Amino acid sequence: METLMDELQQLSTAEEFLDYFGLEYDPAVVSVSRLHILKRFNQYLAREGGLAGLNEGLSRIKCRELLARAYTDFVHSSGIEQKVFKVFQQGVQRVSVDSLRRSLGEANHA
Q1: Structure pTM?
Q2: How far is it, in rounded angstroms, from Cα 28 to Cα 97?
Q3: Are the CB atoms for 29 and 71 separated by under 8 Å?
Q4: Could you give the dihedral angle defined by the CA atoms of residues 13, 26, 56 and 58, in that order, rounded to the nearest 10 degrees?
Q5: Is 27 exposed, middle or buried (0-12, 13-18, 19+ CB in 10 A)?
Q6: What DSSP character marks residue 94?
Q7: What is the pLDDT of residues 56-70, one digit of tens each?
C-alpha cells in the first residue's frame, strides 16, 4: 500500500491535488491561480511544521485543510494581491518615458 507521500508525489497539477483530497473548486479560479495555490499550500505546510510525527490519517486531514485554505485564498483575491511569489513581494518600480528615451538614445550611440 502506498503512503500519502508516495501518492502525493504522483500528482502534478492543482486540479489533481484538489481532486485527490475531494475538494470542490471553480475551474476558472484554478486556471488563473494554479501555481499560486500549490505554492501557498506548500507555504502553509512549512509553517505548520510539515507532516512529521503525524499518522497517515492526521496527515491527510491536515493536507486537505491546508489545501482548502490555499485555494480559498485565491477565490476572491489574485496572485498579485496575495504576493505568493517573490516577484510580487518586491516593490513596483516606475520608469518614466523620458528615462526610457535617454537610455535608448545612449544605447544607439554606443
Answers
A1: 0.70
A2: 36
A3: yes
A4: 140
A5: exposed
A6: -
A7: 999 999 999 999 999
| Grid coordinates of 56 | 497517515
* Spatial distance between the Cα atoms of 10 and 33, rounded to a whole number of angstroms: 21
- Residue (of 18, 60, 11, 66) closest to 44 by Cα position: 66
Q: Cα-flanking dihedrals φ and ψ of residue 108, to 5°?
A: -70, -25
Q: Which three cell numbers stand for residue 47?
A: 509553517
Residue 70, burial from CB neighbour count under 10 angstroms (0-12, 13-18, 19+): buried
By residue count, the chain amounts to: 110
Distance CA 46, CA 56 (A): 18
Q: Is the pLDDT of residue 28 over 90?
A: yes
